[in-house]
Write a structure and sequence with these properties.
Protein name: Aminopeptidase N
Number of strands: 37
Radius of gyration: 29 Å
Cofactor: Zn(2+)
Distance between the termini: 12 Å
Keywords: Aminopeptidase, Hydrolase, Metal-binding, Metalloprotease, Protease, Zinc
Strand content: 15-25%
Domain Aminopeptidase N-like N-terminal: 181-280
Bound molecules: ligand BES, zinc ion
InterPro entries: Aminopeptidase_N-like_N (IPR045357), Aminopeptidase_N-like_N_sf (IPR042097), PepN_Ig-like_sf (IPR038438), Peptidase_M1 (IPR001930), Peptidase_M1_dom (IPR014782), Peptidase_M1_pepN (IPR012779), Peptidase_M1_pepN_C (IPR024601), Peptidase_M1_pepN_C_sf (IPR037144)
Largest sheet: 8 strands, mixed
Helix content: 25-40%
Strand order of the largest sheet: 10-9-13-7-6-16-19-18
Length: 996
């Protein structure tokens, strides 16, 4: 599965998104690991009981413990519980199924928590007010979730100790066999050790501060609870800690009181009036500085916005704060959604598995998604921060106020919120540029996932580890599915659906079906066929053939759809696919469209104009025909405008001339870009086939070059087409850069059976070099035109980003020529750069050119930035990703470098995940790259299961590669899965990938 992380930019350098879309010419990423979000996948039935070594582990049996005394004032006197060492075999991890959903026997009305934070242990006092939710008068047993590092100190029911025979504690849960009828109050005291918690789930310490991460199932690492999203309660939280070390004490909701205590300690009392699931609980305690701003909402309420960071970073929070204000305003204007408390906090922490977390009124962010200054952050960092701040803020309604009934519904909140953050970014910056970036991300990471062993529907049917299930599919394909409603219903119809969704479900935990019903009912339409997108995995294939009849002036589109089988789903049904179509006339202008048959039957006008030039056709059958009338001359069809559905499309009879025509003329910018991609993809695949057939070694560059030249090389028509785009006046620079970027290596791997990733990389480089050589004068002109004047300050906006992106594009292309004068020019730019975008752009180009400039620049960069951990991540990532021959030795040395910290997820992502993106070094034919990665997975798994699971995803797409590499990758998976003490996270990914 493809664990996400791409969006949030957990991978340090990346190829596909942001204003820097065209940043790294060298990128030709392999394996599905581009996208970590936590992959998840279905088809567990296939390996319900996977063969696994049955090592013996020691379990702490805590049954029969005596209760600890809880004194008033919440000081705990612990009577040490009897602990036995019991040997039990490891059980095969349990698979959870969506069909097994049952409400809990009790609901939790209120949660009262008291945290006594200390350096050695932390005590958590929890008072739960339960109400019966069962049928009949006999209370069923109540099972509360726990974790093996949570120690139960005390348990009371309605104020009285519980007889040991009436409860049972295991590594995973606490079961109360007999509860009295009626409402029940539970008092639970647990002991945890946040300072030893390297998993970064539950309560842990980062840079000396206490913080929490509870999604998906981290709350059970704090106290025993019904740790599932449909259990919604109000919370009061008291936090107590040493005042000197932890001056700031935060939790969700409103601050009710605070004060000093004896012994240099203090406390704060927080209350959250909105019922919420426990995954949205948060606590922070530490030494933090704060910057504040006020936002006045649409109804005139003042909200305090606060960002907490370590003091030395206070100068880097303005952009995040500004982004938050923009997000709040946008949600009011676009969806009428107003913030619902008087306080909104964001805390930045260095050690964080994901990008950021939407805890109610206390968002916690990976510091790399908060901190930015022109000197230390790139355009891409700035745009990610804007997007992620928006995303987490938007969750306040889509996720928090209306949450998920169970984790199978994750796309309900994530797909929808990604869609919302995409729209936010589109409205603030360039819509076509954002759309192209998102589709690039989808193709590079989600399509392969959907075609591989981990393919799963956006609403999966089963999982072992929920963390493994924050995938590109759930997020990005999920957002595409939300976009389908928007495309079919139009902006206003979509808004009506959203309004009804909140009206019906505010304060509740609901399902994807509820969302669909709200959209359908609000618009009085039947959307049931859209529902199939939730349950069916795999990327649909759309085939279009066309026919023009000059005599009748009719133009016919014949469409066929077919979804290939995926693990566990051999047969697929036709989906409802909205296909946005335009017809471009010989003059390059759109032809007004007259669709035969009533629009409501199979087509809707886009907008209300009488004569639309784009219509959205509704493909509902396996095969269907659409006829346009009054078409005066044979047009070139522009199909799937704006990428109106996440499908793979082939257009029969589409020639290079058609594509060149669309690249030059299409009024739909997405399809202009798409035409360029199709042109260059065709060429790359053709050249790869030639090289592959000639059996030239990818190491023999001369032979490869002559083979490729002999196969036709790069045609003039492509050079001309690219030149025309690059030089077109008034065209967005980011668009120019993207339109002249070749499809990534990963995308090509996805199109080639048993691909040789290194050969793909070399072929792609050949084309890049040819283009650079023949476009050189144009690139040099661009460089002159896009340079800033000396002394110009860095500004982050779409226009300036476009300028820098195009400049970087020119630098990257020129650098492929590997000429000393060009290298000198880039080194000089590297040294003189006044912002991180330009500096790291130059460094990225230099790193791919072997020679002295490479090492000089790397060491100068390190010396300059060694005290800035976020910049050091870039330094690690660029080196790890490099395709310089034999770079593994350098990567190995970086693991031992004093600047590298294996306990920090960002460090692991920047080093290991970036390494796995090198088609040359990760995919080295001798298997050395794979072995290094396998070793690293096992090492990291002992520290942090989620991070290790993302790393092991580098191997899951092994079937895409040639036989030799397949064998080597599979061998690593088999070695890993046979290792004793492996985490469930890594286990699930390995077994599913091997079993498919
Ligand atoms: N709710 C998630 C964060 C999360 C997911 C935390 C799983 C723990 C486990 C959050 O809203 C999210 O989706 N964050 C993304 C970034 C976002 C811009 C898509 C992330 O962290 O990658
Ligand atoms: Zn989210």
């Amino acid at each position: 599965m493809i664990l996400r992380g791409l969006r949030a930019g957990l991978l340090s350098a990346r190829l596909t998104r942001g204003h820097g879309a065209a940043m790294h010419h060298q990128v030709a990423a392999p394996a599905g690991l581009l996208s970590l979000r936590g992959g998840g996948s279905p088809s567990t039935s296939k390996f319900g009981a996977p063969a696994r070594a049955s090592p013996e582990i020691s379990l702490r049996a805590t049954t029969g413990m005596s209760a600890a005394e809880v004194k008033p004032g919440n000081e705990v006197e612990v009577t040490e519980v009897q602990q036995e060492e019991t040997k039990l075999p490891v059980h095969d991890p349990a698979t959870k199924f969506r069909k097994d959903y049952k409400p809990t026997p009790f609901s939790v009305e209120n949660v009262n928590l008291n945290f006594i934070l200390n350096e050695d242990v932390t005590h958590v006092h929890s008072i739960l007010s339960l109400k019966p939710n069962y049928q009949g008068s006999t209370p069923p047993p109540l099972k509360l979730d726990g974790r093996k590092d949570v120690k139960l100190l005390s348990l009371k029911v309605n104020g009285s100790d519980v007889n040991p025979s009436e409860y049972n504690v295991t590594e995973k849960d606490l079961t109360l066999a007999k509860l009295p009828p009626g409402p029940v109050t539970l008092n639970i005291v647990t002991e945890i050790k946040p300072q030893e918690n390297s998993s970064l789930e539950g309560l842990y310490k980062s840079s000396g501060n206490f913080c929490t991460q509870c999604e998906a199932e981290g709350f059970r690492g704090i106290t025993y609870f019904l740790d599932r999203p449909d259990v919604m309660a109000t919370y009061q939280v008291r936090v107590e800690a040493d005042k000197a070390n932890y001056p700031v004490l935060l939790s969700n909701g409103n601050l009710k009181s605070q004060g000093d205590l004896e012994g240099g300690r203090h406390f704060a009392l927080w209350e959250d009036p909105f019922p919420k699931p426990c995954y949205l609980f948060a606590l922070v305690a530490g030494k933090l500085s704060m910057k504040e701003r006020t936002f006045r909402t649409m109804s005139g309420k003042d909200v305090a916005l606060r960002i907490f960071v370590q003091e030395n970073n206070l100068g880097k929070v303005d952009h995040a704060l500004e982004s938050l204000v923009k997000a709040m305003k946008w949600d009011e204007e676009t969806f009428g959604l107003e913030y619902d408390l008087n306080l909104f906090n964001i805390v930045a922490v260095d050690d964080f598995n994901m990008g950021a977390m939407e805890n109610k009124s206390l968002n916690i962010f990976n510091s790399r998604l908060v901190l930015a200054s022109p000197e230390t952050a790139t355009d891409l960092d700035y745009s990610r921060i804007e997007g992620v701040v928006g995303h987490e803020y938007f969750h306040n309604y889509t996720g928090n106020r209306v949450t998920c009934r169970d984790w199978f519904q994750l796309t309900l909140k994530e797909g929808l919120t990604v869609f919302r953050d995409q729209e936010f970014t589109s409205d603030l910056n360039s819509r076509p540029v954002k759309r192209i970036e998102d589709v690039m991300g989808l193709r590079v990471a989600q399509f392969p996932e959907d075609a591989g062993p981990m393919a799963h529907p956006i609403r999966p049917d089963s999982y072992i580890k929920m963390d493994n299930f924050y995938t590109m599919t759930v997020y990005e394909k999920g957002a595409e599915v939300v976009r389908l409603y928007n495309t079919l219903l139009g902006k206003e119809g979509f808004r009506k659906g959203m309004d009804l969704y909140f009206k019906r479900h505010d304060g509740h935990a609901v399902t994807c079906d509820d969302f669909l019903a709200a959209m359908a009912d609000a618009n009085n339409v039947d959307l049931s066929q859209l529902g199939k997108w939730y349950g069916q995995a795999g990327t649909p294939r759309l085939n279009v053939s066309t026919q023009y009849d000059a005599a009748s002036q009719r133009y016919t589109l014949r469409m066929k759809q077919h979804t290939p089988p995926t693990p566990g789903q051999p047969n697929k049904e036709p989906l409802l696919i909205p296909v946005a179509v335009g017809l471009v006339g010989p003059d390059g202008k759109d032809i007004p469209l007259h669709l035969r048959a009533a629009p409501e039957a199979n087509g809707t006008a886009n907008g209300n104009t009488a004569q639309p030039t784009t219509v959205v056709l509704r493909l509902t059958e396996a095969e269907q025909e659409f006829v346009f009338e009054h078409v005066p001359a044979e047009p070139v069809p522009s199909i799937l405008r704006g990428f109106s559905a996440p499908v793979r499309m082939t257009v029969e009879g589409q020639t290079d001339e058609h594509l060149q025509f669309l690249l030059a003329n299409d009024s739909d910018e997405f399809n202009r870009w798409e035409a360029g991609q199709r042109l260059s993809r065709k060429l790359l695949l053709q050249l790869y086939d030639a090289a592959s057939a000639a059996k030239v070694s990818s190491a023999d560059k001369k032979a490869l070059q002559s083979t490729l030249a002999g196969a036709g090389g790069v045609p003039d028509s492509l050079v001309k087409a690219f030149r025309a785009v690059l030089m077109e006046k008034g065209l967005d620079g980011s668009f120019k850069a993207m339109a002249t970027t070749l499809p990534s290596g990963t995308e090509l791997v996805d199109e080639i059976p048993e691909a040789d990733p290194t050969l793909i990389y070399e072929v792609r480089n050949y084309v890049l070099r040819e283009l650079a050589a023949r476009l050189r004068p144009d690139l040099e002109t661009i460089l002159k035109e896009t340079d800033s004047a000396p002394g110009d300050a860095y500004v982050f906006n779409a226009k300036e980003c476009a300028r820098r992106t195009l400049k970087q594009k020119a630098i990257n292309m020129l650098s492929t020529l590997e000429e000393p004068s060009i290298v000198d020019m880039i080194l000089q730019r590297f040294r003189e750069a006044t912002n991180m975008t330009d500096q790291v752009g130059a460094l990225g180009a230099l790193v791919e050119v072997p020679g002295e400039a490479r090492s000089t620049a790397l060491s100068e960069f390190f010396e300059k930035w060694k005290s800035e951990p976020l910049v050091i991540l870039k330094w690690l990532g660029l080196q790890a990703m490099s395709n310089a021959p034999g770079n593994l030795a350098l990567v190995r040395s970086l693991v031992d470098h004093p600047a590298f910290n294996i306990n920090n997820p960002n460090n692991c992502y920047s080093l290991f995940l970036a390494f796995a993106r090198s088609p040359v070094n990760f995919h080295a034919a001798d298997g050395s790259g794979y072995a290094f990665m396998g070793d690293s997975v096992l090492r990291v798994d002992k520290i942090n299961h989620q991070v290790a699971a993302r790393m092991v995803s580098a191997f899951t797409q092994f079937r895409q590669y040639d036989k030799q590499r397949q064998g080597l990758m599979r061998a690593q998976l088999e070695r890993i899965v046979a290792t004793n003490g492996l985490s469930e996270n890594v286990f699930e990914i390995c077994t599913k990938s091997l079993a498919a």
